[in-house]
């Protein structure tokens, strides 16, 4: 894995972990930290969905059917993220966590049909697990 990818990808987990921790440890402001985490999670879920759009445009050997599926899937995470921001925090956390899990499954399927590097799927699994656990963890915050 290129060093810059590791720094950016794993560095992107810091807001997940820090905001979840703040929501659990700072009871008077837990609602603020929780909402910031939900907003960040929605942005990142939208971002990872867009990866499939880019792959669909650039994978030369992908069948037209698989390319269409990639384009269609790429907008679903953004729609889930937007919907999550309309829900109460517990439901929003669950929906965003489920969105990260579903997107990982789509990444796993995509790996079978593209020439993505071998480090991509293990990295996406690690990122998805930390993001989902942080979102679920913030559900335990007391809303102050």
In short:
The relative contact order is 0.19. Helix content is 78%, strand content 0%. The radius of gyration is 16 Å and the shape is elongated.
Protein described:
This protein is mainly α and 144 residues long. The protein is built from six helices and no strands. The radius of gyration is 16 Å and the shape is elongated.
Largest sheet features: none
How large a portion of the residues is in β-strands, by DSSP E?
under 5%
Any low-confidence stretches, pLDDT <50, length ≥5?
none
Helix content bin: over 70%
Q: What do the pLDDT scores average to?
A: 94
Instruction: Based on Cα principal axes, name the global outline.
Output: elongated
The structure class reads mainly alpha
Number of helices: 6
Question: What key attributes describe this structure?
Answer:
single chain; 144 residues; mainly alpha; elongated
List the helices and strands and how they pair.
Layout: H1 3-11, H2 14-25, H3 30-58, H4 64-84, H5 89-111, H6 120-138
């Amino acid at each position: 894995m290129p060093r810059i990818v590791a720094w950016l990808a794993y560095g992107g987990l810091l807001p997940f972990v820090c905001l979840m921790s703040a929501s659990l440890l700072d009871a008077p402001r837990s609602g603020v930290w929780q909402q910031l985490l939900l907003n960040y999670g929605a942005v990142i879920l939208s971002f990872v969905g867009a990866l499939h759009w880019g792959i669909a445009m650039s994978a030369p050997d992908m069948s037209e059917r698989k390319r269409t599926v990639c384009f269609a899937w790429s907008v679903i995470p953004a729609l889930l993220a937007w919907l999550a921001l309309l829900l109460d925090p517990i439901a929003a956390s669950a929906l965003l966590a489920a969105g990260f899990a579903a997107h990982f499954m789509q990444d796993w399927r995509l790996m079978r049909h593209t020439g993505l590097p071998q480090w991509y799927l293990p990295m996406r699994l690690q990122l998805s697990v930390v993001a989902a656990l942080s979102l679920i963890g913030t559900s335990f915050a007391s809303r102050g």
